[in-house]
Amino acid sequence: MTSELLELSAAQAAERVRAGEIDAGELFEAYRERAAADELNAFTWVAPEAPGGAPAANASLAGVPLAVKDLFCTEGIPSQAGSRILEGYRPPYTATVVHQLQQAGATLLGKTNQDEFAMGSSNENSAFGPVLNPWDRTRVPGGSSGGSAAAVAAGLAPWAIGTDTGGSIRQPAALCGIVGLKPTYGACSRYGMIAFASSLDQAGPLTRDVTDSALLLRHMIGKDPCDSTSLAFPGEISTPTATDLKGIRLGVPEELTGSDGGVEPGVRASFDRTIALAEQLGAEIETCRLPHAPHALSAYYLIAPAEASANLARFDGVRYGLRVAGDGGLVSMYEATRAAGFGPEVKRRIMLGTYALSSGYYDAYYGTAQRVRTKISEDFRAAFERFDFIVTPTSPWTAFELGAKTDDPLAMYLNDFCTVPMPLAGIPAISIPSGLSDGLPVGFQLAGPAFSESRLLDAAFALEQAIGFDGRSARA
Amino acid sequence: MSEETYEPVIGLEIHVQLSTRTKMFCGCELSFGDQPNTHTCAVCLGLPGSLPVLNARAVHFGTMIGLALGSEIAERSLFHRKNYFYPDLPKGYQISQYDVPLCRGGGLDGIRVHRVHLEEDAAKL
């Protein structure tokens, strides 16, 4: 692939295709070759050939190839959610957001690796092996949308979609030096997304820059009659153009930026530099409080496993996916199938969730967690009366070495310290690369009120231009 | 113990199939006598990624039953997942109602009605 083609952002590539300067088929084949030669294990399936039929010349996304996280159902194409229990499963229908993007002209390049059922923060929980971080192949890409993040960072795909439940778009975006956006809950349809925690799951873009995220999100939003929790998005997602942050008030929550959250010095330094840049761009910066945010992680690790324990009950070997016979009886078949089909982290969360929901413990665990969730929402609501956006580091750490945290699930869960409060409150948040610490990317997170995506993207765009992050070395 | 110490209390759980055109949580036709597995979709098969959408007509009928029985109609009602494993239960749970049913109380011909709620019924295996 010519480096010129590779260096075009997806939005630029779409524009060139529409202008007739690039052939969509050539663009697809160039990326297809790169994806097929993937050495990062970012893909679980790559399109064997360019899709037949040229995209409409005026289509917004103009045939630009798209990488899709494995847990989105794609008709006739393996959709395995990173799990052995769904190995080889080919659904008879396509997820609404994927369908909408295809209608807008995107072409399916491949399916990307992920933590099993989106449970993980390092992509080491995939049944199909870990994904390597293109900045340093001895390190993790983050998770659970690690394949999507690594593919975009390494230039194996111009852009990708993923899902975020507790940080699964933003954290891998941060660790791979790209942009990741978790939209407002309900902004994008969940129909066809293999469910992890239904009250938290949202689809969103992982892209090289903020403009690409805006363009992708524009075609992902909307009310879907097949998803009762989806909403008609108020207004459109505009192309970001801001060049400054004049009049924008940024709140820096003590609880999510201090050493309590275990924020590494290098991450903190990059965060402080970005705050200084924001101030130069005209933003007003003030410290604020989110008093219940430190409890978000505990609430999340009750609510998400509780929902997952019901969502994953359908994988029992009866109708599709893996079946292990056991001793011939029904219960034995269930047990043998689930024992062989689910990985250790998925089993851990099913057991946690089943326990949290069990009779006699329901209110003490699940009920309390739901009340904490309400408190977290109220904290954000109060903060947004004074501030346009809340800003934090995306992840307390940069990419860590493969295997470094696999023996300690609690240490792994701390990855999500700064990203978990937002999905609990249902609000949108974006991570943009803010620089490097010891050669590894650092993410800067902005969170806004529900449906503030256009303003959020605008502020992120102004900061992105000022930061001038250079991700080319990961694509080399 | 003598037989006088017992008082018979009989409770009935009555299931009524509503005459809606489509199923409770998807757009598949509700009909009888057709070939098996012809009125199915991703939702009623419980395929991964599918989501239920409540049949508005079923809520209407349920409310009508509640009004006829003199029940208190809930202004806000909730569905719950009743978790258990059985091969004819595609999702591993049944969508039913638990603590906030559609209708509470009421009665007919002196027989008290505890509650009226809506739930899905899995097809025969």
Rg measurement of chain A, Å: 21 Å
Shape call of chain A: globular
Total DSSP E strands of chain B = 7
Number of helices of chain B: 1
**Secondary structure: number of strands of chain A:** 11
Strand order of the largest sheet of chain A: 1-3-2-4-6-5-10-11-9-7-8
Order of helices and strands of chain B: HEEEEEEE
Measured by residues with Cβ under 8 Å of the partner chain's Cβ, the largest interface is: A-B, 35 and 20 residues
Query: Which range does the strand content of chain A fall in?
Result: 5-15%
**What is the residue-averaged pLDDT of chain B?**
92
Helix content of chain A: 25-40%
Task: Describe the 3D structure.
The complex is a heterodimer of chains A (476) and B (125). Helix content of chain A is 37%, strand content 13%. Chain A has helices at 3-6, 10-18, 24-36, 96-103, 146-153, 170-176, 210-218, 254-257, 265-280, 296-311, 330-341, 344-357, 362-386, 409-413, 421-425, 453-467, 472-475; strands spanning 43-46, 65-69, 107-112, 159-164, 179-182, 202-207, 249-253, 284-288, 389-393, 429-437, 440-447. In chain A, helix 5 packs parallel to helix 6 (170-176), helix 10 (296-311) crosses helix 12 and helix 10 (296-311) crosses helix 13. Chain A contains 17 helices and eleven strands. Chain A has a domain at 3-241 and 453-475: Amidase signature (AS) enzymes. With 476 residues, chain A is an alpha/beta fold. Chain A has an eleven-stranded mixed beta sheet, sandwiched between helices. In chain A, strand 10 (429-437) and strand 11 (440-447) form a beta hairpin. With 125 residues, chain B is of the alpha+beta class. Chain B has one helix at 56-68; strands at residues 72-73, 80-83, 93-96, 103-104, 107-108, 111-112, 115-116. In chain B, a hairpin with a 2-residue loop joins strand 5 and strand 6 (111-112). The longest helix of chain B has 13 residues, at 56-68. Chain B is globular and about 55 Å long. Chain B starts with 55 loop residues before the first helix and ends in a 9-residue tail after the last strand. The relative contact order of chain B is 0.18. The mean pLDDT of chain B is 92. The interface between A and B is medium-sized, with 35 and 20 residues.
